[in-house]
C-alpha cells in the first residue's frame, strides 16, 4: 500500500505570492482611495482622507460632475481617442508592413530613426507641431487634437507591428504574390487577419494614451470649453487657492470605467501580441 505524503506549501513558493500580493494591494490602493473619496464631502475628505470607507455613501459629487458638462467632455474624449486610434492602426500597420516585407534603400536607417524618436522627450517637437496644426487651420478642432495624438503614437506602434510581422512566414507573402495578389491586397486579405492581436494591443495603448492626455487638448483647444476632453475638464477643478478634490475623484472614477472595460475585453490579446512583437 502506497501512502501519499501530504506536502505543505514551500516557503520558497509562498514568499513570492506574499510579495506580489502586497505589491498588488499597493497598486490598487490609490484607485480604491479615489473611489472612496468620490463619495465624501470636501470637509470629510480633509478630516479623514486616508480612510477607504466614507462616513456616508452619497452621490452628490457625481451629480455635480455630470451637471458640469461631463457628458460633453466624455463625447469629445471618445471622438479624439477613437480618431487617433483608428489613424494609428491604419498608418502604423501599413508602415510596419512595408518595413517588414519590402526591401528598399534606407530601410534600416528609417528603422533606426523610428527607434531614436522613442528616446526623445515627447515635448521636444511640440512647438513645430502646434505651428503646423495652425497652418492647416486645425487648431481649436478635435480633428487637430486627434492628428497630433496619432503622431505621437505612431513610432512605437510601427515598431510593434514590425516585430509582429517578422513572425509571419515570408512564404505566405510570396505565395499570395504568385497568385497575382497586389501588395495592398496581400496586406488587406492575407496579413491583417493574422495581426488582429497586435492591432487590439496597439489600439488599447493608443486609447489609454489619448484618453489621459492633458497637454495636447489643453494647448490646441485653449479657451474653447466646448472642445475640452475629460482630462482637461478634470484639470479645471484645480482652483487658484483650493482644488475640489472630491469632484476630481468622482470625475476620475467615471472616466476610467470605459478604459477598464476595454482592457478587460481585450486583455487575452495583450500578452500574446506583445510576445509576438518582441520575438523578432
Question: What tags apply to this protein structure?
Answer:
280 residues
What does this structure look like?
With 280 residues, this protein is mainly alpha-helical. The chain has twelve helices and no strands. Helix 6 packs antiparallel against helix 9 and helix 7 packs across helix 8. The longest helix is centred in the N-terminal third of the chain and has 42 residues. The radius of gyration is 24 Å and the shape is globular. The termini are far apart. The mean pLDDT is 84.
**How would you describe the oligomerization state of the chains in this entry?**
single chain
Main sheet summary: none
Mean pLDDT: 84
- How far apart, in Å, are the first and last alpha carbons? 53 Å
By secondary-structure content and strand pairing, the structural class works out as: mainly alpha
Large-scale geometry: globular
Unreliable spans are: none
Please state roughly what percent of the residues sit in beta strands, choosing from under 5%, 5-15%, 15-25%, 25-35%, 35-45% or over 45%.
Answer: under 5%
Query: What letter string, H or E per element, gives the SSE order?
Result: HHHHHHHHHHHH
Rg, rounded, reads 24 Å
What is the percent of helical residues? over 70%
Would you report the number of β strands? 0
Helical segment count: 12
Amino acid at each position: 500500500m502506497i501512502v501519499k505524503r501530504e506536502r505543505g506549501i514551500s516557503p520558497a513558493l509562498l514568499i513570492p505570492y506574499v510579495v506580489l500580493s502586497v505589491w498588488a494591494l499597493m497598486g490598487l490602493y490609490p484607485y480604491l482611495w479615489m473611489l472612496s473619496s468620490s463619495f465624501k464631502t470636501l470637509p470629510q475628505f480633509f478630516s479623514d482622507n486616508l480612510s477607504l470607507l466614507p462616513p456616508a455613501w452619497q452621490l452628490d459629487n457625481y451629480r455635480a460632475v455630470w451637471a458640469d458638462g461631463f457628458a460633453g467632455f466624455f463625447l469629445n474624449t471618445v471622438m479624439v481617442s477613437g480618431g487617433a486610434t483608428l489613424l494609428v492602426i491604419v498608418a502604423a500597420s501599413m508602415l510596419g508592413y512595408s518595413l517588414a516585407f519590402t526591401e528598399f534603400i534606407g530601410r534600416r536607417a528609417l528603422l533606426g530613426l523610428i527607434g531614436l524618436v522613442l528616446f526623445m522627450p515627447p515635448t521636444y517637437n511640440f512647438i513645430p507641431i502646434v505651428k503646423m496644426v495652425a497652418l492647416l487651420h486645425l487648431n481649436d478642432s478635435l480633428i487637430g487634437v486627434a492628428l497630433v495624438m496619432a503622431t505621437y503614437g505612431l513610432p512605437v506602434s510601427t515598431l510593434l507591428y514590425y516585430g509582429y510581422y517578422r513572425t509571419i512566414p515570408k512564404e505566405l507573402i510570396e505565395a499570395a504574390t504568385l497568385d497575382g495578389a497586389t501588395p495592398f491586397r496581400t496586406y488587406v486579405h492575407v496579413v491583417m487577419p493574422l495581426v488582429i492581436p497586435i492591432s487590439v494591443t496597439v489600439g488599447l495603448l493608443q486609447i489609454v494614451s489619448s484618453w489621459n492626455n492633458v497637454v495636447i487638448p489643453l494647448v490646441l483647444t485653449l479657451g474653447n470649453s466646448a472642445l475640452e476632453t475629460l482630462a482637461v475638464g478634470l484639470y479645471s477643478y484645480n482652483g487658484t487657492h483650493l482644488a475640489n478634490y472630491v469632484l476630481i475623484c468622482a470625475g476620475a472614477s467615471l472616466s476610467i470605467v470605459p478604459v477598464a472595460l476595454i482592457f478587460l475585453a481585450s486583455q487575452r490579446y495583450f500578452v500574446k501580441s506583445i510576445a509576438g512583437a518582441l520575438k523578432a
